[in-house]
Design brief:
Number of strands: 15
Bound molecules: 1-O-pyrophosphono-5-O-phosphono-alpha-D-ribofuranose, zinc ion
CATH superfamily of the largest domain: Periplasmic binding protein-like II
Distance between the termini: 34 Å
Low-confidence stretches: none
Helix content: 25-40%
Mean pLDDT: 94
CATH architecture of the largest domain: 3-Layer(aba) Sandwich
Structural class: alpha/beta
Largest sheet: 6 strands, mixed
Strand content: 25-35%
Number of domains: 3
Number of helices: 8
Shape: flat
Oligomer: single chain
CATH class of the largest domain: Alpha Beta
Radius of gyration: 24 Å
Length: 286
């Protein structure tokens, strides 16, 4: 039988849709009916298992799945950070401590002798240890934000993304415990054929990530400004410069990091750049 790579991804929740669309952006077609817990790709030797996010690290470390997309927070809680092979640049969030909005909070000594509710007892225990704070940890598996309001705990340690759940529950964020995002994890002891498939998948994922971080830029500029504009645009190697029909003008094409674009737009215009187009890149192999 031909080797297939088995990947575990979240069935439903914050990472589910983006995990599937990442596979799709990698050119992999998956046909899965609603509610299906397993599906196969039609054009890549890949089988997809749809699981609860908290179960993914266990399935991967136990070798039931060869790899998986999981939240770094969950992987860290389960003490499996060695399995992480790539950060995937989505589902960014933080694990944070929060207290009632009206609490007078100054520093972590606030929690001394108090109770903190969390689904992340291991990460929280380490954090409190490094801060030298003795607090008791109340482990609960969901709806953690309700705990301070009902008198179960003085504070919570939970995932914050937009912050709207904290707001709705009258809480304020006071400490960042760890930053998290979706990561690719790998099973121990994969055989050679699976490693080859995994590396193919990883390089496709990398091309998608790199493309998402960059934009293709096209602009027209007077020849006298071209060298200054080139200095602003690093490009992959160097910008492409083509003469325009209008004498003394050129068209310039380059690649710029998305986050840098807004910083240089004013300078480009000041240098006489016109007709600036910024377009998304679908895949970028560097
Ligand atoms: C987290 C966390 C909060 C919410 C915060 O749940 O438990 O309820 O997200 O997001 P917000 O800051 O955007 O309001 P998650 O989606 O990780 O689900 P799970 O804990 O049930 O896996
Ligand atoms: Zn979860």
């Amino acid at each position: 039988m031909d080797t297939k790579l088995r990947i575990a991804i979240q069935k439903s929740g914050r990472m589910a849709e983006k995990s599937l669309s990442l596979l799709k952006d990698c050119g992999i077609s998956i046909h899965s009916g609603p509610g299906a817990l397993k599906a196969s790709a039609t054009n890549f030797p890949l089988e997809v298992l749809f699981l609860r996010d908290d179960d993914i690290p266990k399935y991967v470390s136990g070798g039931v799945a060869d790899c998986g997309i999981a939240g770094l927070n969950v992987v860290a809680e389960q003490g499996d950070l060695d399995a992480v092979v790539d950060e995937l640049d989505f589902a960014k969030c933080r694990l944070a401590l929060a207290v009632k909005r009206e609490s007078d909070y100054e520093d972590t000594s606030f929690f001394e002798g108090k109770k903190i509710a969390t689904s992340y007892p291991n990460i929280l225990r380490n954090f409190l240890e490094t801060k030298g704070v003795e607090a008791s940890i109340e482990e609960i598996s969901g709806s953690v934000e309700i705990a301070p309001g009902i008198g179960l705990a003085a504070g919570i340690c939970d995932i914050v993304s937009t912050g709207s759940t904290l707001l709705q529950n009258g809480l304020k964020e006071v400490e960042t415990v760890m930053l998290s995002q979706a990561v690719l994890i790998q099973a121990p002891d994969l055989d050679g054929n699976k490693i080859i498939l995994l590396n193919r998948l990883r390089s496709r994922m990398k091309a998608v990530r790199t493309a998402a971080r960059n934009k293709y830029i096209l602009l027209n500029a007077p020849n006298s400004s071209i060298s200054k504009i080139c200095a602003l645009l690093p490009g992959m190697k160097s910008p492409t410069i083509l003469p325009l029909a209008e004498e003394g003008w050129s068209s310039l094409h380059s690649v710029v990091p998305e986050d840098m674009f807004w910083d240089i737009i004013d300078e480009l215009q000041a240098l006489g750049a016109q007709g600036i187009l910024v377009v998304p890149i679908e895949k970028m192999i560097v």
